[in-house]
Amino acid sequence: MSVERTLAPVLEALTWQRFRTAFYSKYFPSSRLRELESEFLNLNQETMTVDEYEAEFDRLSRFAPTLVMDAEFQMRRFEEGLKPHLHRSLAAIHSTNYDDLVDRAKNLKIVWKETYDTKDRKQKKRNRDYDARSGQSSSKTAKSHNQSWQSGKQGSYGKTI
């Protein structure tokens, strides 16, 4: 049965709401809508970028309109699904609306990446400097550092752990 046949018995003008209701009842049965709503409620950023998470959040939120009618709930749900370090950082910031929250999350992600990249570059530079002073190649140095650290780990009573 097509959407047209679903709407045919009613002689009223076709409104967007009527079309949407007929379309959803035809192509998204209530069981599928419940699945999509559940996906929305369980959505977390995990390995996605903030942009990918936002796109998936927006896509799934269309299937749970009653859950995102309240702007505060929408913002809280988005924030709770972010990676923990972004969620903790945003907790101290009061966003005025959903778009503001998403923008702040993207900016925090950039800052976290820059911070991590800076730390990584400094560590690599320290390793190169140490290698240059000791005259060892970096792979030998890394192995010797790891071996000396492993052999130096001791638990209580002098036992190596």
TrEMBL record:
Pfam families: Retrotrans_gag (PF03732). It comes from the Eukaryota. Residues 15-84 form the Retrotransposon gag domain. Residues 134-161 have a biased composition (Polar residues). Residues 122-161 are annotated as: Disordered. This is Uncharacterized protein LOC120110696. It comes from Phoenix dactylifera (Date palm). The lineage of its organism: Eukaryota, Viridiplantae, Streptophyta, Embryophyta, Tracheophyta. The gene is LOC120110696.
